What we know:
This protein is α/β, with parallel strands linked by helices. 51% of the residues lie in helices and 13% in strands. It has eleven helices and nine strands.
Amino acid sequence: MRASSSAPRARARDVDADAIAVIELAHARTSNALDRDGFEALKRACETIESNRIARCVVVRGAGGNFSSGLDLSTANAILDARTADGCAGRANEALMRTIEAMQAGVSALERMSAPSIACVSGVCFGGGVDVITACDVRIASEDARFCVKEVDLGLAADLGTLQRLPTIVGHGRAMDLALTARTIDAREALAIGLVTEVVADVDARGMELARELAKKSPLALRGTKRVLLRARDDPNVAKGLDYVAAHNAAMLRSDDLSEALRARAERRPPVFSKL
């Protein structure tokens, strides 16, 4: 789907020879601001990658030196207009709810992908950009990256996933600080609080390097590990988590990937895992 400017706001590039897919936020003129069509394009890109089941790792990045400046102003204005477009407050509220849920679905599609995702953050990552990176599994940043949970300064509570995911990444207290103050932090502070795991000079190159490292591993093991960790986050009951991973591995221990990993180790060679 295309935005009103006829430029795609998010696009998936073809999976490369290393089984790595790239999703690019692609509206550099607005620092990759996301509008409603952009969230829909993000959702479709994730669903295409998931349905093809070829990619073993997904890199998410922004075009033009910035990750994302957040919600596009045209979308914000359209949401404001929708409040008065219908004389019935109940129907207006329902329409707003559908709009928010559609944008939430675009962000959550990143987390629902079976393959692990790596957010490569450069330049600004504000508002909706933070929603996007917190839905990714690994986050790395360039030295010039800046982060801001901006919504409170716009009279809103962040509603696309940051308030749900950020506390599990940086801790409740730090998430409160960032969300209530809307202060901008640099890459070094993001590293110190655990929002990102690396700060590098060339984030796109490092992201592809890390993706290639992951793509060499068993795709079943990667997807299973991601699934178990997300379940543990959403239901932190240890006993339930152990039961879940036991049932998961009871099935996975019968896979060819385990046999190949053991053979490769015995033969002192890199393992070669089959496609899914």
